[in-house]
Amino acid sequence: MARAQNLGEPEPTRESPFSALDGPITPNDRYFVRSHFAAPELDLCEWRLSVEGSVEKPLSLSYDELQAMPSKSVTVTTECAGNGRRYLSPTMCGIQWEQGGVSTANWEGAPLSAILERAGVHSNAVEVVFEGADGGEIKNPPRPGAPIKFARSVPIDKCRSDVLLAYRMNGEPIAPTHGFPVRAIVPGWFGVASVKWLSRLLVVDKPYTGFFQTIEYAYWQREGGLVRRAPVAGMLVKAQIARPTAGEVIASGSSYRVVGAAWAGESSVAKVEFSDDGGENWSEARLTGNPERFAWQLWEHDWVAPATGPCFLMARATDADGNVQPVTRDLDRENYMINHVIPVTVEIV
Ligand SMILES: Nc1nc2c(c(=O)[nH]1)N[C@H]1C(S)=C(S)[C@@H](COP(=O)(O)O)O[C@H]1N2
Ligand SMILES: [Mo]
């Protein structure tokens, strides 16, 4: 399995082999892994999920209690906010993901709405902070100080409408690297919000400003002449080409079925276009399979390889709200939210 080139971070990371795309679901052994600290080993008998903060009745749920609640399953595409960082120029710090920081799985678990209802959330609540059992010191760059836990918050409305506390991934108990026994799944949002190894839900009445919320996994938002730090949230519209792959050698005049996937966060993919001349001309690709609200849209395009020489292939998606993938990089996004069109160079012989 490919390892993402790692600029100084010791934590385990694994790219999904995106070029192997062969259906809507990423098999568990090909699903990408991004963990900031060592995976905690949790004992099911001792594990509890506590629900605290701005609630009428704090809870402490066991694995059995969570599983006994009505369950729901949903197919969700999750992209790491740093996916594609390898293609940024100048180079930005962090894991140098190519195209494999994105995967799709079917998750089964308890809707968070039911748990919040049981706890009786106070009307002043604005967010739920998801805290993982993992933590440690921040090493890259070094920040001397006490160890911290991995934690992220999600607005209360999103928690009520879409968030799942998942215990099964593609029909199997969630593997230790993916957050056993229970993780959050925040459909349509960048992966960082889907906290693994959940141990605590803290309902808060002010926006949370933790390390992975406002320092990392955050970007600059401009409003009224001010620049402020905003946490990455919904995934942006984006298409990737699975095949051909960069550097592939293709015979001039041959027919080639170009395949890929596109996703649009909380919106949906309206169209995917393909270009074989570096973005001068575009033709519409075919959307395939059965679209699901939070899952990627597979697409294909029957293409005849042009004259010999290097050839710059591009795919660009448009979402249902009319957002088109940009051609240039927005520097306010720093090293996250990478959705500008990135060419795949192949060699026509
Ligand atoms: N507790 C915990 N949750 C976490 C993380 C983490 O390091 N610790 N990484 C986040 C990030 S940045 C991503 S992209 C996804 C990756 O999930 P996966 O490893 O199952 O693909 O988990 C998120 N949840
Ligand atoms: Mo991530």
From TrEMBL:
Domain Oxidoreductase molybdopterin-binding residue range list: 36-211
Signal peptide feature range: none
Region (Disordered): 1-22
Organism: Fimbriimonas ginsengisoli Gsoil 348
GO terms under biological process: sulfur compound metabolic process
Protein name in the entry: Putative sulfite oxidase protein
Pfam family, one: Mo-co_dimer
Keyword Phosphoprotein carried by entry: no
SUPFAM superfamilies: E set domains, Oxidoreductase molybdopterin-binding domain
